[in-house]
Write a structure and sequence with these properties.
By secondary structure, the protein is α/β, with parallel strands linked by helices. The chain has one domain: HUPs (Rossmann fold, 3-Layer(aba) Sandwich), CATH 3.40.50. About 25% of the residues are buried.
Length: about 160
């Protein structure tokens, strides 16, 4: 079955590079379009101790968090745009998006709304308690996506 719309879930890591390269190869083979995607995860545990601060301290904290988030968004936009340019240089149509929140759910939802027929993402190989506490994006996507999923295993696993 040829794939026409491939959603590529990326991060800025060596594994993310491998995921991109695999998705690019599949896009070339199938004449598919790529949707390059990244989710910025906000750690709720970081925010919890600050909820009881006075309003002016909370405002300062909120401003600092927003400033940090803006920097992260700019960094993500830059490397997603670079990946899109690499794909387009090889005659592959590529667009990109980034969201803030839980990666598994965003990947599932974007795959549905964009009508992806394949999701390509990486797996770091968390097991046992680490996977239980940190969660597994790839596991969530495999079990909740309405299309095929290709999981690229971390090379050290």
């Amino acid at each position: 079955m040829p794939y026409k719309k491939i959603l590529v879930a990326l991060d800025d890591s060596p594994l993310g590079q491998q995921v991109f390269e695999q998705a690019l190869a599949l896009a070339k083979q199938n004449g598919a379009n790529l949707m390059l995607f990244h989710t910025i995860l906000i750690d709720n545990q970081t925010l919890t101790p600050y909820i009881s601060l006075y309003n002016e301290q909370l405002a300062e904290f909120s401003y600092a968090m927003r400033e940090q988030l803006d920097k992260e968004i700019e960094k993500v936009r830059h490397w997603l745009d670079n990946y899109a340019k690499i794909a387009e240089a090889q005659q592959i149509t590529a667009e990109w998006d980034c969201k803030i929140g839980e990666p598994g759910r965003w990947i599932r939802d974007l795959a549905n709304s964009w009508n992806a027929d394949l999701i390509v993402l990486g797996r770091r190989g968390l097991k046992g308690i680490s996977e239980m506490f940190l969660g597994s994006v790839s596991n969530y996507v495999v079990h909740h996506a309405n299309c095929s999923v290709l999981v690229i295993q971390h090379p050290e696993q």
